[in-house]
Structure formats: C-alpha cells, structure tokens
Amino acid sequence: MVDLSSALKASAENVEEKLKSILSTDDAPERRLIEAMRHAVLGGGKRLRPFLTLQCAGLFGVADQSALRTACAIELVHCYSLVHDDLPAMDDDDLRRGRPTVHKAFDEATAILAGDALLTLAFGVLANPATHANPGVRADLVAQLAKAAGGHGMVGGQMIDLQAGQEDLTIGAITRLQRLKTGALIDFACHAGAILGRAPEPAREALRGYAHDLGLAFQIADDLLDVEGSEDETGKAVGKDKSANKATFVEILGPERARAQATLLATQAADHLAMFDKKADLLRDVARFVVERRH
Ligand code: GRG
Fold this sequence. Notes:
Blueprint: H1 4-22, H2 31-41, H3 48-59, H4 64-85, E1 95-96, E2 99-100, H5 102-105, H6 108-127, H7 135-149, H8 154-163, H9 171-196, H10 201-228, H11 231-234, H12 240-243, H13 249-253, H14 255-271, H15 281-292
Antiparallel strand pairs: 1-2
Bound molecules: geranylgeranyl diphosphate.
The site of geranylgeranyl diphosphate has 16 residues, from helix 4, helix 8 and helix 9.
C-alpha cells in the first residue's frame, strides 16, 4: 500500500519534470517572460490539484501522458491565479511559496504578462493532440476549464471577494464565493480525470460530490492557516484576512466550529467515493490531509 506523503511526493516530482519541459527556455527576445513564468510555476507548491487529476484519471485507467499533461495545465492556471492575486492591485503580497512573488522578483508589468501567458499556455497544452488523441475529449477539457476559470468560476469568485465587505456576507454568500474562487478549479481537477476516462455518469456524480466537499474543506483549512499558521509554515504572509477585513468561514464560525466543519466536510468527501473501493484510498487520504495540513 502506498502512503499519501510518498504518493504526493512522487506525483509532485513528475509534475515538476513535465512543467519544466513545457516551460523550456531559449534565447528568444521574450525570454524574460518565460523566466517569470518559470519563477511562478517551478520549485514549489503542494501540487494538490495535479494530484487530484492524476488520482481521478487513475480510477478510469487513463494513459499517464494524458493525465500528466492535463494535470500540468491545471497547475498552470492555478499558478497564474496566484501571480495575479499577489499583485499590488489585489492582495499585494511579497512572499509566495517561500519566495518573492513574481512582481517582486521581476516587476509588475512582467507579472501581469506572465499570468496572462500561463493561462493561455494551459489551454494550448489541453488542445494539443499529445494530451488526448480524441479531439472531442480535448474540446471538452478546454470548455470545462474555461468555465471553471472564468467569470462565473474562479475569476468571478475573486471579483466577489474584492467587492465584499465583511458585514455584507452571510455564510451562504461566503460559501458561494469560495465555491467559485477555489472550488471551481478543484472541481475541474477531479472532473478532468473523468473526462479523460470517459467515465459513466454515476462515477462523475461521485467525483462531483467529492470535489465539492473537498473544495470547501480546503478553503476552511486555508482560512484557519491564515489565523493560526506562520509565515515559515505556509511560505506566504498570514493574518491577511483579518487585516483586509475579509469575510471568511473562520470569521463567521470561529476557529473551533470552522475546524469541526472542515473535518466533517473531509469525511463527507471521502464518503462519496464508496463505489471506487480501494482504488480511491489516496483520494480519501488527501481529503484528511487537506484539513490537517500546516502549509
Ligand atoms: C484570477 C487573480 C485571480 C484570482 C483567483 C484562486 C485565487 C482567485 C486566488 C489565489 C489566492 C488564494 C490565497 C486563494 C485562496 C486559496 C488558495 C487557492 C490557496 C493557494 O492554494 P494552495 O494552498 O497553494 O494549493 P500551493 O502553493 O500549495 O499551490
């Protein structure tokens, strides 16, 4: 039996290698942009979303190359969101993954362009025949990622977050915000495995339930880390939600109830996977990891 930390490590190494080859450098005049993209993507992060894609694809016997390229495309979108989120116009952060943010290591304009180029590169990776021989599968991946990342997905969630004053948001509104901002990409990370594997509807439904609960548990844990974690553990500034007066689950529920809710959601997430038997053990383990993590 493979334990979760070895599996996460092995998966992160494979993802890192593939991302390095996707983001290879040359002597082109635009190489500063490629260097900024590499700074944003390589050498850090838990690689949680790629792990979800690889594990979900594994449930349906998807070829390694297809799963890995799709997993990398999702990580590219995630990294773009981090680069733009860190900009002075958004969260204005200096530290990410224990290193200077892209606009600090390079400059603001380069960081904007690097984010733009990472997002478009992700779609290029999915649309490439090397990702899947069937153009219908590739088109479905592209369409579903566009939906997850766009105006009624991750970017829409960010917009609501930027507009929200703490007093304005109910727990229901915060849940919706977080479902868009963080949940949509986590949903797609799981769903992508089912698209690649042409999974039947009951299996897709099970993964939808899993991703939904996992995404919320992940976000509550992220809120808790912002209150209780340290910069050394998380590799980014903490205490930002309070100082920015952000509406979070922890702010509304308090840390104890928030932790209990995250644990419940993680258990519920794992319960959705019954039909996959032992094949989904690492997905069950990762649900627990998401709420217990310190980074
Ligand atoms: C499109 C600008 C823009 C933003 C979209 C996802 C997002 C909104 C912003 C990212 C910033 C943020 C702190 C979001 C909350 C949760 C989250 C996505 C945390 C970071 O994800 P991890 O913990 O990070 O998986 P690593 O570094 O491990 O990949």
